[in-house]
Design a protein that fits this description.
By secondary structure, the protein is an alpha+beta fold. It has helices spanning about 90-100, 105-110, 115-125, 355-360, 495-540, 545-575; strands at about 150-160, 165-175, 180-185, 200-205, 215, 220-225, 230-240, 245, 255, 270-275, 280-285, 290-295, 305, 325-330, 335-340, 345-350, 360-365, 370-375, 385-390, 390-395, 405, 415-420, 425-430, 435-440, 450-455, 460-465, 470-475, 480-485. Helix 5 (about 495-540) runs antiparallel to helix 6 (about 545-575).
Amino acid sequence: MDAEYAYTKKRMHFGKKCNFSDNDKVEVEIKSDPALMNNYVRTDPVTHATQCSKVYAVHEVNTPTATYRDSKMFHYEGGWPKDINMKDLEQTVRYRRKIEKDELYLKLIGILTRDLAFKSMEHYILQNNACNIYEQFFADVEATPLIQRAFSRTVNVYRDPLIAKRSITHLSWSPDQGNRFAASYSNANFKKSFSSNYTSYIWEVENPNSPYMTLKPFCPTLTLEYNPKDSNILVSGLMTGQVACWDVRRGPELVDISSIEFSHRDPCDKTLWINSKTGTEFFSASKDGQIKWWDTRKMLTPTETLVIDLLKPEDQNVDKATGISALQFESSMGTRFMCGLENGIVVSGTRKGKTPGEKIATRFRAQYGPVISLERNPTFVKNFLTVGDWTSRIWAEDCRESCIAWTPGHRDFLTGGAWSTTRYSVYYLIKTDGTLDVWDFLIQQDSPVLSVKICDESLTCLRPHEQGQLAAVANKKGSTYLLEFSEVLTINQKNDKVLLTALLDRETRREKVIEAKNRELRLKMKTLKTHGESDFVDAASKPDERDEVKESCSDLRNALITQCEEEYENLINAVK
């Protein structure tokens, strides 16, 4: 029984949306019939042949044998008449001139130089060209280096093992290829802290899980600095104002400590090693405004003390001293040192001065607030970097009144900065929002070349590695991040030193010109004020001449200001 039902509809109704509905209609119902089983016969085995491929017939064809022959022709030079000897240069030149003067030749050349003919002629001419695959193209042109991308990555994170997290106040790399670094931990809110654990740690770069050594002082440590000549010796500044000496070979306890009577009045947060024959001398600074020089062989008393009193330096009155917020020493500068004060002034001093006034003679008005970081350029030691409030500035020792370069104001407060130890023009800045900015003055001066969000907490200190590729950055939660920078930020190019030298010299000359004009303007205004007052006093006895004197003084002042402005613009244009 065949059940079939045909659905028919027009083509225009195809493709429409189907509307389905529930329906219980039974179209066909075929029930089983057991009687049909009697007609079923089972055959075993069954042999059946099946051929699915096409059937082809065999055809054989005999073709005639083809014979091939190679023929050659040596074409040296053709197209010459029989009476012309092609090896005779004079005859060939004479014949060419004769043909070129023929009118038919000129017409043929005109036809060949048309668009279509010229293309075909060019095609045949180019067929004779041979390409030398060994030819060196542009051999005299210097290869331009590819523009590489500046980036960084976090290598390791070293966290404070204690549950109560403390801020990291200082970092220092060991001098033995920088395999270890020391971190000093101190609670910023130490007055509200009830923890009696004041440990600091020495970490191995390859092991961020546990510290290499735990240092156990009796009070919080604010700074911890490696001896550049001996990787086993460290000095530290303590919360009590004392300075202490450590020896890794003798265990985690203090080796020697200064007497509290001869130490700083405020917490000692700055210590640096200085050049000496024995390699045992260092100096320290504090917010009490004192700089003290020490010798680890005799730690009880300082070898020398200098009070930073800007008003009367000869009195050496500690009560009138200005607090020191940054300290700097460059080993190649001998006895010279620099310190940044809490009032924004940078003092450049020397130990060779006979009096305290001579030791702190050079001063720079660097920042509006405390100078947080102060560091000389490792290559151009006459230029130094200051970081404070919301800006960083680059100074030259020859220009005292103004800096030669500066960064735009940041939205977040800057907490530190440091020069790159390998690339001349790169320096780093850290901020309270957990961001690290990398500046390169040879690439751009209005914005950083790289800005990295390291963490959500405020960054407290920064210390680049001596090889330049790594940098340790710490935050207030006790975590230290080891960053690795790309080659663009660590390796100098061929002309970087020449370009940076030219940039710094140009900016220094510009500032010197501006300083000279400012001094000249101040001198003229002072002279004008003195003469104007004397003339006004003389004319005070004559009421009729008083107005004339005022007008003459005003005219003279305006004329001087106009003249100074013109001279200033001429000098600036001449420098450019």
